[in-house]
Design a protein that fits this description.
With about 240 residues, the protein is α/β, with parallel strands linked by helices. The protein is about 45% helix and about 15% strand. The strands form two sheets. Strands 5-4-3-6-7-8 form a six-stranded parallel β-sheet, sandwiched between helices. A two-stranded antiparallel sheet has the order 1-2. Helix 1 crosses helix 4. The chain is globular.
Length: about 240
């Protein structure tokens, strides 16, 4: 698919900057940082032992259910967690991530810094908690996103609800064609499609689930296997 025409957005130095997408809306886990294989799946296996002794789930099953339902849907629909159990699970996870920081994907730092240096915005729409996203950005990139829409929002304002994108357009004055959502899961498409916002599949997440990759390549406007390919697309 051909690249979109360049859009104009005020820059920090020369008053006007040319960017293909003045606003990048980035997912966090497994788009910017490598968390599922090294953090969330191992932790989920530990939680299953606590909440549902004897029940197991393979990594591929975990990835696909998160892809299709989201994590809360996985807990509710597949393992019938009560709201009390969900609250306990969330507390356990928050305690865990306070002392575990996932590594970023190689090359994603260049994209984030180039977008900012050329006058663009970085917004984050994720199911991670706002405080953890802010910590990861400060630790790895030395900056903060321009806006963060995380799990701490009320459920009706979280992805795949359209609220985060609507609020970004309202706050910063962007048109749908000036925004690109970058994500590894299809909840992003469900959020973006009603507003006419394009989505790029972060194929560098490397989950190793062919059916997921094939579906994302089909339903997203763009697909990139490496961060280098994505950088060239954005800034060529």
């Amino acid at each position: 698919m051909p690249a979109m025409p360049s859009a104009r957005h005020p820059g920090p130095s020369d008053g006007e900057t040319m960017l293909k997408y003045p606003c990048l809306v980035l997912d966090h886990d497994d788009t910017v940082v490598q968390s599922m294989k090294t953090m969330s799946y191992p932790f989920w296996c530990m939680e299953l032992e606590i909440f549902r002794p004897g029940q197991t789930m393979t990594f591929q099953e975990y990835v696909m259910e998160c892809h299709n339902r989201g994590f809360a849907g996985l807990c509710r629909d597949c393992f019938h967690f009560t709201e009390e159990e969900l609250a306990k699970e969330h507390t356990m996870w928050m305690d865990y991530v306070m002392t575990h920081i996932p590594d970023p994907y190689p090359g994603i730092d260049r994209i984030i810094h180039r977008q900012k240096a050329e006058g663009g915005l970085i917004c984050v729409v994720s199911h991670s908690h706002k405080d953890n996203i802010a910590r990861d950005y400060q630790t790895h990139f030395g900056i903060q996103p321009d806006a963060i829409y995380g799990w701490d929002l009320p459920p009706h304002q979280r992805k795949p609800n359209t609220y985060p994108l609507e609020d970004i357009m309202r706050r910063f004055g962007f048109k749908p064609e000036e925004i690109l959502v970058v994500d590894d899961m299809k909840l992003a498409c469900q959020m973006a499609a009603p507003l006419g916002v394009q989505v790029a599949y972060a194929g560098w997440s490397g989950m190793g689930v062919e059916s997921l990759s094939a579906e994302m390549e089909k339903i997203c406007d763009y697909s990139f296997g490496t961060t280098q390919d994505f950088e060239e697309f954005l800034f060529a």
